[in-house]
Design goal:
alpha/beta, two-stranded antiparallel sheet, 12 strands, 19% strand, globular, binds nicotinamide-adenine-dinucleotide, binds 3-isopropylmalic acid, binds manganese (II) ion
Length: 347
């Protein structure tokens, strides 16, 4: 690849702050790799509602479709509560429009950084897991009814929706320890029973080399922080994956550390830190940009197929973590911008 187009959706709250760090890293490593980067910033989320009345303006979606990869900061905030449209609707809309059914959320604790986790070092030591979250189905996208006295969200999954995301998890496991833990609520939910049957059938048919087990989501929430190193690939549906990934961020130390890749469509993938717009620290240069930096590395690896530049960023992240050049959420005293500069220096 000699040239690439990235669309940036800085969004709201700390979104623009962490996007600035990701952008600088991407520009530097692409230049060094001889890749000409064309970039475009588009309105998205609350910022787009303010300027154009809708969270995902048609022009933004058009630009994203024409890009090789999309980087998103974060959207949302109390300012838009109770308004006609929520910023989060834009995020759900773009995931659906781009067909991004698989969300990869890696959680790896760097050896020697066990002290960053509020969990005991001996518990988190060796944790290295990948959450594969289904992203365009389930409760998020089923029919909704919202009345004053009654409301409902329909949870629907088809076998095909389960199979395609399970395939992503099985393929990922082949490049790792070869183990998939599928997390569901099959003791209560019909969708979970279909999920489990479809996952087992696919494993038996196409992935007999992969070790598969099933854990109910409530027990999984416990095991995830009790013995995180026991997991390799976690495969789960949309809502469970959302909740478990925020929980899993505590293993590494902070929600500000985790990046993600949303993949699956014919077109570009979307790369974003798992955290939100953090209104409580927005505008104070306190946001941890390492999750955004990790997302930039995932963008290079999965979106642009540039493995070496991805590894350069990941190595810089390990460096600042090892030396404590970090933000207050993991005990450091640097601001978001200073961590960005420290990363650039290490490239
Ligand atoms: P949040 O992730 O924004 O914040 C939760 C807590 O983690 C806060 O205390 C925050 O300060 C802290 N935090 C988050 N990111 C951090 C970072 N990079 N560095 C340091 N600390 C960080 O979750 P929330 O407060 O529940 O949600 C705020 C808004 O963000 C809501 O509108 C929500 O819908 C939205 N949201 C958006 C996304 C997204 O755009 N992908 C993801 C999650 C939440
Ligand atoms: C995430 C967020 C989103 C989700 C919200 C903002 C719609 O929490 O990306 O994890 O629930 O998927
Ligand atoms: Mn979330």
């Amino acid at each position: 690849m000699t040239s690439a187009k990235i669309v940036f959706l800085p969004g709201d709250g700390i979104g623009p702050e962490v996007t600035g760090v990701a952008r600088a890293l991407l520009e530097r490593v692409c230049t060094d790799a001889g890749v000409t980067l064309e970039t475009e910033d588009c309105l998205f989320g609350g910022a787009a509602i303010d300027q154009s009345g809708t969270a995902l303006p048609p022009a933004t979606l058009k630009a994203c479709r024409a890009a090789d990869a999309v980087f998103l900061g974060a959207v949302g905030g109390p300012k838009w509560d109770g308004g006609p449209e929520r910023p989060e609707a834009g995020l759900l809309g773009i995931r659906k429009a781009l067909g991004l059914f698989a969300n990869l959320r890696p959680v790896a604790l760097q050896p020697g950084t066990e002290h960053l986790s509020p969990l005991r070092a001996e518990r988190v030591k060796g944790a290295d897991l990948l959450i594969v979250r289904e992203l365009t189905g389930g409760l998020y996208f089923g029919d909704k009814a919202e009345g004053e006295e009654t409301a409902s969200d329909l949870c629907v999954y088809t076998r095909e929706e389960v199979e395609r995301v399970a395939r992503v998890a099985f393929e990922a496991a082949r490049g790792r320890k070869g183990r998939v833990t599928s997390i569901d609520k099959a003791n209560v939910l019909a969708t979970s029973r279909l999920w489990r049957k479809a996952v087992i059938a696919l494993r038996d048919k196409e992935y007999p080399d992969i070790e598969l087990d099933h854990v109910l989501v409530d027990a999984a929430a416990m095991k995830l922080i009790q013995a995180p190193a026991d997991f390799d690939v976690i495969l789960t549906e949309n809502l469970f994956g959302d909740i478990l990934s925020d929980e899993a961020s505590v293993i590494a130390g902070s929600i500000g550390l985790l990046g993600s890749a949303s993949l699956g469509g014919e077109g570009p993938g979307l790369f974003e830190p798992i955290h939100g717009s953090a209104p409580d620290i927005a505008g104070q240069d306190k946001a941890n940009p390492l999750g955004a930096a990790a997302s930039a590395a995932l963008l290079l690896r999965h979106g642009l197929k540039l493995e070496d530049p991805a590894q350069r960023i990941e190595s810089a992240i390990r460096g600042v973590l090892a030396d404590g050049e970090t933000t207050p959420d993991i005990g450091g005293s640097l601001g978001c911008r200073a961590v960005g500069e420290a990363l650039l220096k290490r490239l």
